[in-house]
Design a protein that fits this description.
Elements: E1 2-7, H1 15-26, E2 33-37, H2 41-46, E3 49-52, H3 81-91, E4 96-101, H4 103-114, E5 120-123, H5 139-160, E6 163-168, H6 175-184, E7 188-190, H7 198-210, E8 216-221, H8 250-262, E9 266-270, H9 282-300, E10 306-311, E11 314-319, H10 320-323, H11 332-339
Parallel strand pairs: 1-2, 1-4, 4-5, 5-10, 6-8, 6-9, 7-8
Antiparallel strand pairs: 2-3, 10-11
Bound molecules: 6-O-phosphono-beta-D-fructofuranose.
6-O-phosphono-beta-D-fructofuranose (F6P) is lined by residues 9-10, 102, 125-127, 169-171, 222, 247.
Length: 343
């Protein structure tokens, strides 16, 4: 089988581990071949591709980013995406596609699969907000990076008797904030699933300081929102090809509000793309590798329109359309546990 592979959407630690696993498992079959499309769906639309083999995918297991490059291209934005993709697949004699991506890339994959294109999806996102899988690779690495940063911010907050607001990624779901906040001992965690009241946040901080603590750590998801729509928002007017506003900067507003309302000196740090860069953790390398091998095995078995997924400790196949239908939001129980430690 001649399989095409691509990486779309935001990059994510572990993408190269999937690519390597796809290639290594595909080439076990004597007639196996893997074609890598560059820059996500853009590479498919423009026929920008490279044949992948054991040599040109060697030494990439531990490397962050993606050797194929990535974009947020939407083949359906300006026309009949299915026809455009099919034309290139036919011309290049590609039997099946393995897109590695989040809700947007796999949303495109799901439409193509519904139109009869042979597809097996691989879920990735540091945000961990894809339904259909317990965990996406990249999440574990992002949480570790954020936790390391919170540990460092703790010592400087303590030394200066300051409140520090740490902004992490998480557009629709607060997984990174909840996990890194729990791991880093945050005093307040703000997530998109639980719109916040700024007065309540400040009360918690004041209560904590009144009980003798001299500093506080607030972890906030970029997509967190105030309950009353009080204008604390960071969505820019710019949108990508899938209509998402660019987020980032809520910590700037929180820094000002918290300092003004509590009188405590406050600083903010936005971790941003640091969370997506660099070496994947061992956990993410293993998960990504299992997903890559699982995707080729699904293709060999003709399980089109599915997505590889982690359920418990098993790699299973789930329906791609169902997996991308709704985002996977933070579980209440996890946030309730984190709340036990709030100021
Ligand atoms: O991959 C998802 C994500 O990390 C979101 O949390 C964030 O809003 C977005 O990517 C930012 O992506 P970029 O700035 O690279 O387009």
């Amino acid at each position: 089988m001649r399989v095409g592979v691509l990486t779309g959407g935001g990059d994510c630690p572990g993408l190269n581990a999937v690519i390597r696993a796809v290639v290594r498992r595909a080439l076990v079959e004597p007639d196996g071949a893997v074609i890598g499309f560059r820059h996500g769906w853009a590479g498919v639309l423009h026929g920008d591709l490279v044949e992948l083999d054991a040599q040109n995918t060697a030494g990439i297991l531990h490397r962050g980013g993606t050797i194929l490059g990535t974009t947020r291209t939407n083949p359906y934005k300006d026309g009949d995406g299915t026809a455009l993709v099919r034309e290139v697949l036919d011309r290049e004699r590609i039997d099946a596609l393995i897109p590695i991506g989040g809700e947007d890339t796999l949303g495109v994959a799901s439409r193509l699969a519904a139109d009869g294109v042979k597809i097996v999806g691989v879920p990735k996102t540091i945000d961990n907000d894809l339904a259909g899988t317990d965990v996406t690779f990249g999440f574990h690495t992002a949480v570790q990076i954020a936790t390391d940063a919170i540990d460092r911010l703790h010592t400087t907050a303590e030394s200066h008797n300051r409140v520090i607001v740490v902004e992490v990624m998480g557009r629709e779901a607060g997984w990174i904030a909840a996990y890194s906040g729990l791991a880093g001992g945050a005093d307040v965690i703000l997530v998109p699933e639980r719109p916040f009241d700024i007065d309540e946040v400040c009360e918690r901080i004041k209560r904590r300081h009144a009980s003798g603590r001299t500093f506080s750590i607030v972890v906030v998801s970029e997509g967190a929102m105030p309950r009353d729509g009080s204008g604390i928002t960071t969505a820019s007017a710019k949108t990508d090809a899938f209509g998402h506003a660019r987020l980032g900067g809520i910590a700037v507003e929180l820094e000002r509000e918290i300092e003004d309302r509590t009188g405590f000196e406050t600083r903010m740090t936005i971790l941003g793309h640091v969370q997506r860069g660099g070496t994947p953790t061992a956990y993410d390398r293993v998960l990504a590798t299992r997903f890559g091998v699982g995707a080729i095995e699904a293709a060999d078995a003709g399980r089109w329109g599915t997505m590889v997924s982690l359920r418990g400790t098993d790699i299973v196949l789930v329906d791609l359309a169902e997996a991308v239908a709704e985002p996977k939001l933070l579980e209440d129980a996890l946030y309730d546990t984190a709340e036990v430690f709030f100021g």
